Amino acid sequence: MARLADLMHRSVFKAVSLLGSKGQGAVLRRYFDWWHRRPDPWHLSTDSYERRKYLTTLEQVPAGSYRRILEVGCSEGVFTELLATTYPEAEVTGVDISETALERARERAGNLGERVRFVHADLLEHDLGERYDLVFCAETLYYVGRGDRLRHASDRLGALLAPGGLLVLVHPWPESRRLHGPADAALSKVGERVDHEAWRPYAVSLYQGSTRAALDVS
Ligand SMILES: C[S@@+](CC[C@H](N)C(=O)[O-])C[C@H]1O[C@@H](n2cnc3c(N)ncnc32)[C@H](O)[C@@H]1O
């Protein structure tokens, strides 16, 4: 039953991705603002499965000092806040296509100071103009739809990495093989953990960008 619901969900977002990228962005913006009409629509702040996934994700990141951290598809900033408390010296940025979600993210992170900020942008169109030591993208890539949009999204995520930076992708397993496939092809995979025990298994895949210079994708 859950698989059928997932199939229908993916088909809807693949259909939206038949639009031009501006049209797709406009539909996603309206959809995710509507979806966030009520606070925390996925129960990210209270669900024990989500909490476990967040902690498993953080466990995969090698110890180190990361100065600039980005979360793409941050919703209301639950994981962004955890990143900010885990890395108290880092500048942490959350990006989402829903301004409604970001208003709540800013409220949530209100006591964390100016080192935490939120930017309204489309993963497929953004022009953040900055590079990051750590980039996270979880439970978001299945919204970008067809294969060429997925490759484009992966290229843009890779282009956000500072030299030697790490990209962490987290999506349901085994669908993660398709969703993380373009990153597998373009970047060096340096680790993966699949949590098979969770009721909805997921993969945390870790990639390292080029140690010389970031790619420029536009
Ligand atoms: C399921 S939530 C994931 C939240 C968070 N990553 C987590 O795992 O806790 C997916 C988020 O991705 C955002 N999103 C979807 N498509 C996007 C796009 N093209 N650009 C930026 N954000 C997007 C949605 O607005 C939503 O807040």
TrEMBL record:
* Species of the source: Nonomuraea purpurea
Q: Which CDD domains match?
A: AdoMet_MTases
Task: Kindly state a single biological-process term from the GO annotations of this entry.
Answer: methylation
Provide this UniProt record's keywords sorted from A to Z: Methyltransferase, S-adenosyl-L-methionine, Transferase
Q: Which Gene Ontology molecular function entries are recorded, alphabetically?
A: methyltransferase activity
This protein is called Class I SAM-dependent methyltransferase
The record's listing under Gene3D superfamilies reads:
Vaccinia Virus protein VP39
InterPro entries attached to this UniProt entry: SAM-dependent_MTases_sf (IPR029063), SAM-MeTfrase_NodS-like (IPR008715)
SUPFAM superfamilies assigned: S-adenosyl-L-methionine-dependent methyltransferases
